[in-house]
Amino acid sequence: AQKITQTQPGMFVQEKEAVTLDCTYDTSDQSYGLFWYKQPSSGEMIFLIYQGSYDEQNATEGRYSLNFQKARKSANLVISASQLGDSAMYFCAMRENAGGTSYGKLTFGQGTILTVHP
Amino acid sequence: DAGVTQSPTHLIKTRGQQVTLRCSPKSGHDTVSWYQQALGQGPQFIFQYYEEEERQRGNFPDRFSGHQFPNYSSELNVNALLLGDSALYLCASSWYNEQFFGPGTRLTVL
User: Fold this and answer.
1) Neighboring chain A residues of B99 at a CB cutoff of 8 Å
2) Which of A17, A20, A41, B93 has the most Cβ atoms closer than 10 angstroms to its Cβ?
3) What distance lies between CA B6 and its chain's CA centroid?
4) CB distance B11 to B89 below 8 Å
5) Which residues of chain A form beta strands (DSSP E)?
6) φ, ψ (nearest 5 deg) of residue A48
7) What is the pLDDT of residue B90?
8) Are A107 and A95 in contact (CB under 8 A)?
Protein backbone atom coordinates (compact mmCIF):
# COMPACT_ATOMS: atom_id res chain seq x y z
CA ALA A 1 0.00 0.00 0.00
CA GLN A 2 1.09 3.51 -0.73
CA LYS A 3 1.92 5.85 2.10
CA ILE A 4 3.04 9.47 2.22
CA THR A 5 4.59 11.00 5.32
CA GLN A 6 5.01 14.71 5.95
CA THR A 7 6.68 15.07 9.32
CA GLN A 8 6.51 18.86 9.61
CA PRO A 9 3.07 20.00 10.81
CA GLY A 10 4.15 23.63 10.52
CA MET A 11 7.08 25.58 9.10
CA PHE A 12 8.06 29.23 9.36
CA VAL A 13 10.25 31.14 6.92
CA GLN A 14 11.32 34.72 6.46
CA GLU A 15 10.23 36.49 3.30
CA LYS A 16 12.79 36.11 0.46
CA GLU A 17 14.42 33.10 2.15
CA ALA A 18 14.30 29.53 0.82
CA VAL A 19 12.41 26.76 2.62
CA THR A 20 12.33 22.96 2.27
CA LEU A 21 9.18 20.95 2.97
CA ASP A 22 9.83 17.28 3.64
CA CYS A 23 8.04 14.32 2.11
CA THR A 24 8.84 10.63 2.29
CA TYR A 25 6.89 7.89 0.60
CA ASP A 26 6.49 4.17 0.66
CA THR A 27 5.53 2.04 -2.31
CA SER A 28 6.41 -1.33 -3.78
CA ASP A 29 5.71 -0.09 -7.28
CA GLN A 30 8.54 0.76 -9.67
CA SER A 31 6.48 3.25 -11.64
CA TYR A 32 4.90 6.11 -9.75
CA GLY A 33 4.50 9.86 -9.76
CA LEU A 34 4.94 12.42 -7.03
CA PHE A 35 2.97 15.64 -6.82
CA TRP A 36 3.03 18.73 -4.66
CA TYR A 37 -0.04 20.88 -4.15
CA LYS A 38 -0.64 24.17 -2.37
CA GLN A 39 -3.93 24.72 -0.58
CA PRO A 40 -4.66 28.29 0.57
CA SER A 41 -7.38 28.98 3.10
CA SER A 42 -9.87 29.26 0.22
CA GLY A 43 -9.61 25.48 -0.15
CA GLU A 44 -8.61 25.11 -3.78
CA MET A 45 -5.83 22.59 -4.39
CA ILE A 46 -3.25 24.25 -6.64
CA PHE A 47 -0.83 22.02 -8.58
CA LEU A 48 2.81 23.02 -8.12
CA ILE A 49 5.14 20.37 -9.47
CA TYR A 50 5.35 16.76 -10.67
CA GLN A 51 8.16 14.18 -10.63
CA GLY A 52 7.97 10.80 -12.31
CA SER A 53 9.86 7.90 -10.77
CA TYR A 54 11.86 7.39 -13.97
CA ASP A 55 12.72 11.06 -14.44
CA GLU A 56 16.48 11.47 -14.10
CA GLN A 57 16.41 15.20 -13.53
CA ASN A 58 14.81 16.87 -10.53
CA ALA A 59 11.66 18.73 -11.55
CA THR A 60 11.62 22.53 -11.43
CA GLU A 61 8.76 24.99 -11.96
CA GLY A 62 9.70 28.61 -11.43
CA ARG A 63 10.48 29.10 -7.73
CA TYR A 64 9.56 25.47 -6.95
CA SER A 65 11.95 22.56 -7.24
CA LEU A 66 11.65 18.98 -6.15
CA ASN A 67 14.61 17.31 -4.47
CA PHE A 68 13.99 13.72 -5.53
CA GLN A 69 16.09 11.05 -3.80
CA LYS A 70 14.75 7.74 -5.04
CA ALA A 71 16.91 5.47 -2.91
CA ARG A 72 15.81 7.30 0.23
CA LYS A 73 12.20 7.52 -1.03
CA SER A 74 12.05 11.23 -0.43
CA ALA A 75 10.60 14.03 -2.54
CA ASN A 76 11.16 17.30 -0.74
CA LEU A 77 9.76 20.56 -2.09
CA VAL A 78 12.09 23.54 -2.15
CA ILE A 79 10.56 27.00 -2.43
CA SER A 80 13.10 29.70 -3.22
CA ALA A 81 12.68 33.41 -2.48
CA SER A 82 9.56 32.94 -0.33
CA GLN A 83 6.73 35.41 -0.72
CA LEU A 84 3.93 36.34 1.69
CA GLY A 85 1.48 34.72 -0.73
CA ASP A 86 3.23 31.37 -0.23
CA SER A 87 1.61 31.07 3.20
CA ALA A 88 -0.68 28.04 2.85
CA MET A 89 -1.02 24.31 3.48
CA TYR A 90 1.24 22.16 1.28
CA PHE A 91 0.47 18.56 0.40
CA CYS A 92 2.72 15.89 -1.03
CA ALA A 93 0.91 13.16 -2.96
CA MET A 94 1.78 10.00 -4.85
CA ARG A 95 0.15 8.09 -7.64
CA GLU A 96 1.21 4.62 -8.71
CA ASN A 97 1.17 3.57 -12.39
CA ALA A 98 2.50 6.92 -13.49
CA GLY A 99 3.75 5.70 -16.84
CA GLY A 100 1.97 8.14 -19.14
CA THR A 101 -1.49 7.33 -17.92
CA SER A 102 -4.14 9.11 -15.90
CA TYR A 103 -5.07 5.92 -14.07
CA GLY A 104 -4.69 5.79 -10.33
CA LYS A 105 -5.69 7.57 -7.18
CA LEU A 106 -3.58 10.13 -5.41
CA THR A 107 -2.54 9.28 -1.87
CA PHE A 108 -1.89 12.40 0.18
CA GLY A 109 0.20 13.17 3.21
CA GLN A 110 -1.14 15.08 6.19
CA GLY A 111 0.21 18.37 4.94
CA THR A 112 2.56 21.09 6.20
CA ILE A 113 1.35 24.58 7.06
CA LEU A 114 3.84 27.13 5.80
CA THR A 115 3.86 30.63 7.27
CA VAL A 116 5.95 33.32 5.60
CA HIS A 117 6.93 36.22 7.86
CA PRO A 118 7.66 39.71 6.46
CA ASP B 1 -9.22 28.03 -21.00
CA ALA B 2 -11.35 27.26 -17.97
CA GLY B 3 -9.88 24.96 -15.40
CA VAL B 4 -11.83 22.46 -13.34
CA THR B 5 -15.14 23.86 -12.16
CA GLN B 6 -17.42 22.58 -9.41
CA SER B 7 -20.91 23.44 -8.25
CA PRO B 8 -22.28 24.39 -5.88
CA THR B 9 -19.64 26.18 -3.81
CA HIS B 10 -21.37 25.57 -0.52
CA LEU B 11 -24.22 23.32 0.53
CA ILE B 12 -26.08 22.74 3.78
CA LYS B 13 -28.12 19.55 4.23
CA THR B 14 -29.69 17.67 7.10
CA ARG B 15 -29.04 14.09 8.14
CA GLY B 16 -30.73 11.52 5.94
CA GLN B 17 -30.98 13.77 2.90
CA GLN B 18 -29.34 13.15 -0.45
CA VAL B 19 -26.93 15.49 -2.26
CA THR B 20 -25.52 15.79 -5.79
CA LEU B 21 -22.27 17.59 -6.51
CA ARG B 22 -21.13 18.48 -10.02
CA CYS B 23 -17.78 18.79 -11.74
CA SER B 24 -16.65 19.93 -15.17
CA PRO B 25 -13.11 18.87 -16.06
CA LYS B 26 -10.38 20.97 -17.61
CA SER B 27 -10.58 21.03 -21.38
CA GLY B 28 -8.84 18.00 -22.85
CA HIS B 29 -9.03 15.95 -19.66
CA ASP B 30 -10.91 12.66 -19.88
CA THR B 31 -10.60 11.33 -16.32
CA VAL B 32 -12.38 12.63 -13.24
CA SER B 33 -11.66 11.72 -9.64
CA TRP B 34 -13.46 12.71 -6.45
CA TYR B 35 -11.89 13.28 -3.05
CA GLN B 36 -13.25 14.01 0.41
CA GLN B 37 -11.22 16.29 2.66
CA ALA B 38 -12.11 16.56 6.33
CA LEU B 39 -10.94 19.60 8.23
CA GLY B 40 -7.20 19.50 8.92
CA GLN B 41 -6.66 16.30 6.91
CA GLY B 42 -5.34 15.39 3.51
CA PRO B 43 -7.88 14.50 0.81
CA GLN B 44 -9.13 10.92 0.70
CA PHE B 45 -9.86 9.24 -2.64
CA ILE B 46 -13.50 8.33 -3.25
CA PHE B 47 -13.50 7.07 -6.85
CA GLN B 48 -12.31 7.72 -10.38
CA TYR B 49 -14.26 7.76 -13.65
CA TYR B 50 -12.95 7.18 -17.14
CA GLU B 51 -14.99 6.62 -20.29
CA GLU B 52 -18.18 6.83 -18.22
CA GLU B 53 -17.13 3.89 -16.05
CA GLU B 54 -15.97 3.77 -12.44
CA ARG B 55 -12.49 2.28 -12.76
CA GLN B 56 -11.14 2.66 -9.25
CA ARG B 57 -12.79 3.12 -5.88
CA GLY B 58 -11.52 4.06 -2.45
CA ASN B 59 -12.75 2.87 0.91
CA PHE B 60 -16.13 4.58 0.90
CA PRO B 61 -19.56 3.00 1.43
CA ASP B 62 -22.10 2.45 -1.33
CA ARG B 63 -23.92 5.58 -0.22
CA PHE B 64 -21.34 7.35 -2.35
CA SER B 65 -21.99 6.93 -6.04
CA GLY B 66 -21.08 8.77 -9.16
CA HIS B 67 -21.54 9.22 -12.83
CA GLN B 68 -19.56 10.49 -15.78
CA PHE B 69 -21.23 11.92 -18.86
CA PRO B 70 -20.09 11.70 -22.50
CA ASN B 71 -18.65 15.23 -22.25
CA TYR B 72 -16.48 13.96 -19.33
CA SER B 73 -18.31 16.00 -16.69
CA SER B 74 -19.17 14.12 -13.54
CA GLU B 75 -21.53 13.98 -10.59
CA LEU B 76 -21.01 12.73 -7.06
CA ASN B 77 -24.12 11.55 -5.22
CA VAL B 78 -24.28 10.88 -1.51
CA ASN B 79 -27.38 9.24 -0.03
CA ALA B 80 -28.56 9.07 3.57
CA LEU B 81 -26.22 11.83 4.70
CA LEU B 82 -24.45 11.49 8.04
CA LEU B 83 -22.93 14.22 10.17
CA GLY B 84 -19.53 12.72 9.34
CA ASP B 85 -20.05 13.45 5.65
CA SER B 86 -19.44 17.14 6.37
CA ALA B 87 -16.28 17.95 4.43
CA LEU B 88 -14.78 19.68 1.43
CA TYR B 89 -15.39 17.60 -1.70
CA LEU B 90 -12.78 18.05 -4.37
CA CYS B 91 -12.99 17.03 -7.99
CA ALA B 92 -9.81 16.45 -9.97
CA SER B 93 -9.52 16.02 -13.70
CA SER B 94 -6.53 14.40 -15.31
CA TRP B 95 -4.92 13.48 -18.58
CA TYR B 96 -1.73 11.47 -18.52
CA ASN B 97 0.40 12.94 -15.74
CA GLU B 98 -1.57 16.17 -15.39
CA GLN B 99 -3.96 16.28 -12.45
CA PHE B 100 -5.74 19.52 -11.58
CA PHE B 101 -8.30 20.17 -8.87
CA GLY B 102 -11.40 22.28 -8.80
CA PRO B 103 -12.22 24.80 -6.04
CA GLY B 104 -14.28 22.25 -4.12
CA THR B 105 -17.77 22.07 -2.67
CA ARG B 106 -18.05 22.56 1.06
CA LEU B 107 -20.81 20.31 2.39
CA THR B 108 -22.23 20.83 5.87
CA VAL B 109 -24.58 18.20 7.29
CA LEU B 110 -26.70 19.32 10.25
Assistant:
1) 35, 47, 95, 102, 106
2) B93
3) 9
4) no
5) 3-5, 10-14, 19-21, 24-26, 32-39, 46-52, 60-61, 64-69, 74-79, 88-96, 107-108, 112-117
6) -110, -50
7) 97
8) yes
CA distance B63 to chain A (A): 20
For B105, nearest residue in chain A (alpha carbons) = A43
Residue-by-residue pLDDT tens, chain A, 118 positions: 789 999 999 999 999 999 999 999 999 888 899 999 999 999 999 999 999 999 989 999 999 999 999 999 999 999 999 999 999 999 999 998 755 566 789 999 999 999 999 9
Q: What does the pLDDT look like over B30-70, one tens digit per residue?
A: 899 999 999 999 999 999 999 999 999 999 999 999 999 99
Is the bond into B25 cis (omega within 30 degrees of 0)? no
Residue type, A89: M
| Strand pairing report for B10-13 and B105-109 | parallel
pLDDT tens by residue, A30-63: 889 999 999 999 999 999 999 999 998 999 999 9
- Beta-carbon separation of A100 and B97 below 8 A: yes
CA B102/CA B93 separation, integer angstroms? 8
